[in-house]
Amino acid sequence: KAGVTQTPRYLIKTRGQQVTLSCSPISGHRSVSWYQQTPGQGLQFLFEYFSETQRNKGNFPGRFSGRQFSNSRSEMNVSTLELGDSALYLCASSLLASVTDTQYFGPGTRLTVL
Amino acid sequence: AQRVTQPEKLLSVFKGAPVELKCNYSYSGSPELFWYVQYSRQRLQLLLRHISRESIKGFTADLNKGETSFHLKKPFAQEEDSAMYYCALRNYGQNFVFGPGTRLSVLP
Q: Which are the contacts of B84, defined by CB distance < 8 A and separation ≥ 6?
């Protein structure tokens, strides 16, 4: 099976712009979670989607949003980018959204905001 | 609120020595606990989880509810164990919370 894929892998934007990141889960997986990873804050949960519905949301401002399509692919959007949004954004998929499910991570999208 | 702490940012041991990576959590319920590992230039991946009671690559982790700890142990460290290790917890209906991570360096 192909692993979790994320596009693009690298992105450079300027303050005030918006960005959309994409995640394709492992075939058959219905749950997709997004994380922000920074040197200062570590791995922080953004949101989780299951069957096109947002199940959980982390403590991030409304500028961060996401969605999931019927084929389980997911996108996250960040509007009005700030310098502090520079981070590695990781996507993880799992078969269901069970607490014991194994999450499989993608390679991440490195976002740099100038 | 759920919280995971890993007191050591960096842990260096010699090959063949025992290693213990500490993880403490705060949560009033009974969360599920996990250890994730990230080797150099590889993706973050699950190492082991409490519910499975398994040993992966010689690593084990015991949940101590009294001390709210889930330390990761290996009796004899190998150079290929050098990586970033993250402890994480999740409770039913809620999201994952990751610790800040510990970088393990196994010296030859």
A: B37, B38, B101, B102, B103, B104
User: How large a percentage of chain A has pLDDT more than 90?
Assistant: 82
User: Is B51 within 8 Å of A3 when comparing Cβ atoms?
Assistant: no
Record: contact A103-B96, CB cut-off 8 A: yes
Question: Contact, A36 vs A44, CB < 8 A?
Answer: yes
Each residue's pLDDT tens digit, B33-71: 999 999 999 999 999 988 777 778 899 998 888 889 999
Is there a contact between B39 and B32 (Cβ–Cβ < 8 Å)? no
* Inter-chain residue contact A107 with B90, CB threshold 8 Å: no
Q: Judge whether B48 and B54 are in contact, CB under 8 Å.
A: yes
CB atoms within 10 A of CB B86: 24
Q: Residue A39: which residues within 8 A CB-CB, separation 6 or more?
A: none
Q: Check residue A102 and give its pLDDT.
A: 83
Stretch A27-32: mean pLDDT, rounded?
94
Mean of all residue pLDDT scores within chain B: 90
Q: Which residues have a Cβ under 8 Å from the Cβ of B70 and sit 6 or more positions away?
A: B23, B24, B25, B33, B35, B50, B61, B62, B63, B64, B87, B89
Tokens of A35: 């994380």
HSE-CB of A22 using CA atoms within 13 angstroms: 7
